[in-house]
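Hi R.,

Here's the input for the flavin-adenine dinucleotide complex you asked about:
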Amino acid sequence: MKPAPFAYHRPQTVADALDLLASSDAKLLAGGQSLGPMLNLRLARPAHLIDLNDLLELDFVRTAPGALEIGSLTRHHRVATDGQVAAACPILAAAAASIGHYAIRQRGTLGGSLAHADPAAQLPLIATLLDAEISIAGRTGTRMVRAQDFFVSSLVTSVQPDEMIVSVRFPVAQAGWGLEIFTQRHGDFAIVSVATTVRRTPSGEVAHMALALGGVGIAPVSWTDFLVPFLGRAPDEAWAAELAEAVAASIAPEDDARIPAAYRRDLTMTLVGRAVAAALAREAAQKNG
Ligand SMILES: Cc1cc2nc3c(=O)[nH]c(=O)nc-3n(C[C@H](O)[C@H](O)[C@H](O)COP(=O)(O)OP(=O)(O)OC[C@H]3O[C@@H](n4cnc5c(N)ncnc54)[C@H](O)[C@@H]3O)c2cc1C
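And here is the predicted structure with flavin-adenine dinucleotide in place:
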């Protein structure tokens, strides 16, 4: 099947892109890895297609105090391989490297992935884990939205039809990290994914922990209050088992034709255990190295 007819635009500035977006029934095109199939299947039928690929000012990685800032047109491959990302936010680099296949990573963009908001996608997971700040531009100015307020539902975000994502700020902090992505085949979307960061005090108790899950609901899930009982304790086997059971018990994945909810819950328990073990091992290696 081929797309329904549309007028094609290739703006040269963000301001021109926003003008086009404000004045018409339009869709932004970034890497086209999600929108292309939706156009072909006629699940999206915009009257105007606004191609962002000449807006190279939106393709950047830079460090800021305590944060890493990445432009919305930055491809997954660059996020996966850029030295600044690897140094400041290695879990983000690992997440980008695990997306789909090489050809998809060469085209797909950070902004496109966040805007598409697939609940099983890697970059929304990491944005939620780190509570990244998403910079969204409209004709009247730019607003910042935290990831935890950005993802509304499956394929729905707080970006309005006349707005576009311009960049994303990922807070960075020294911590061990773990990322577990379970797929049926290499390159598929995750059935369940777990991302975590952990830091211990010098005497070995957990001082900081963040945890996010993908694939278990209508949007990525993360907790703060829920993790409080797990702070201030030495993370031994009993601690890890208690955490994994508590996380698995707190989710309510839907049954679907392919994957029963009970399977997703069991998988979550296993992946939380693995992700936390990996985070603790990395944190220990950082301290020793
Ligand atoms: C075979 C295949 C396998 C894949 N596997 C995975 C996977 O394992 N994990 C994963 O996370 N992803 C996977 N993807 C999706 C991939 O990561 C896409 O790149 C991503 O979802 C969309 O990014 P894009 O740049 O291609 O966006 P596009 O397809 O161009 O756009 C997607 C949506 O975002 C909107 N949009 C784009 N840019 C902006 C912006 N700056 N501001 C506001 N809205 C914008 C578009 O209007 C559209 O609605 C896969 C894709 C394919 C085709």
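One thing worth noting: The chain has three domains: 7-51, 56-171, 176-288.

Cheers,
M.
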